[in-house]
Amino acid sequence: MERGVRPRANEKHLRGAHQEETWDPTPEEHLSEEHTEDVGQHPVTHEEIGGYNWQASKSSLKERFSYLFNNEILSDVHFLVGKDPGVQRIPAHKLILTAGSAVFDAMFNGTLATRAPEVELPDVEPTAFLALLRFLYSDEVQIGPESVMTTLYTAKKYAVPALERHCVEFLKSNLSADNAFMLLTQARLFDEPQLASLCLDTIDKTTSEALSADGFTDVDLETLCAVLERDTLHIRETTLFQAVMRWCENRCSREQVAAVPENMRSLLGKGLSLIRFPLMTVEEFAQGPAQSGLLTDRELVSLFLYFTVNPKPPIPFRDTPRCSLTGKEQAVHRFQQVESRWGYSGASDRIKFSVDKRIFIVGFGLYGSIHGAREYDAKIQVLLPPSGKICGSNSARLTCDGADYTFRVMFKEPIEIRAHTNYLASATIKGPDSHYGTQGLKTVTVDTKSGPVTFQFMYAAGNNNGTNVEDGQIPEILFYT
């Protein structure tokens, strides 16, 4: 059959989705079937080319091209999309495809251009390919949860970045703890770093929920390791270890091997070294990892020594905390009374402190103005003496209303405070005279769900604007256990 010519029966079948576009000629417009025009080298009737004057009812170029989508009219190439038995034969128009995709341009017009009337695409889903064609013909986006990933793959394959962006935006708007791991795997597969970053942020904020979702145990090892490497997971290490054990059991089932420690350790590979056993309590370690069979005798001994002796021996596992902020925010109050008029001349208010167990500081409570509503510029820091190493720092605008209670100034990220180590809390404040605290306490114990935390406060030698244990600024340290 010549190009552009097709049986009338086919026309009726393929135009079923366009019934609203059906045209009935008036008597004045009616032309006999003997009226012909040349298409190619053979005369054919207007009926044979799919309905005379269909263009008249289309008021814009977009409408005319949209009408040609998935339509045999004027089609000059067909695609056999998918795999048996679900292959679909889809008509298309080289000009439109070439105008929308450099890949199609090369396919039809390059030095190795195909001349075949049919092109096989076994690696593409028919639904996704139709979504791509619809976009090229009409700029319309039709994607859903079931087709978005295959459409993203197809848009990348045929270099249609505008459709790629629509797919990624759809995924962003539907991202949740339930699908974060599944989408992270797909984002890494399709090289979508922005989407991958958003997935990781979601996993950071909802770690427990994400690890409980069905998609977690199906992730590949590289994706699992990318998560285990993160310092920002909000979860206790013992709970993370239990999730990794579930992943190992599922992987053993998929690989059709017995879920025994030797196989699980082999399949986990480098992921084992990314579990931060030192962050567990000795009880958590003894009741879980020590009995799992995943660790060698040498690793077990070195970890038990790490938990029980000082100085701690070197171990092959990281001890950097993951900032797993659980429970509610706590505050230690070091003054018993509030007085008036504390001035600022550019020097920093500083106080030395230590705690008896590891915590994470998230900010300071500072006193505000004695002159009513005012604003202050405050730079807060936590430093490690005597080197002066900055553990955390932030600059912020403090707005107060003249009351004698404290006002919060927060760090951008939680700061790990190790047990039995001296630190300096520092606040450099610019603004009018403020309230200040008196009758300070050297030792303050705060009851938390994780048990009591005891703070020791000490004088910070040097220029500290007058703040000391007994009176001054920095009345509160805000923290999590």
UniProtKB/TrEMBL annotation:
Q: InterPro entries given for it?
A: BACK (IPR011705), BTB/POZ_dom (IPR000210), PHR (IPR012983), PHR_sf (IPR038648), SKP1/BTB/POZ_sf (IPR011333)
Q: Which UniProt keywords apply?
A: Cytoplasm
Q: Which domain of life is it from?
A: Eukaryota
One Gene Ontology CC term in the entry: cytosol
Against SMART domains, the record matches this protein to:
BACK, BTB
As for subcellular location, the record says: Cytoplasm
| Keyword set includes Signal | no
Q: Where is this region: Disordered?
A: 1-44
Q: Where is the BTB domain?
A: 75-145
Protein name as annotated: BTB domain-containing protein
Q: Give the source species.
A: Nezara viridula (Southern green stink bug)
Which lineage ranks, top first, belong to the organism behind this chain? Answer: Eukaryota, Metazoa, Ecdysozoa, Arthropoda, Hexapoda
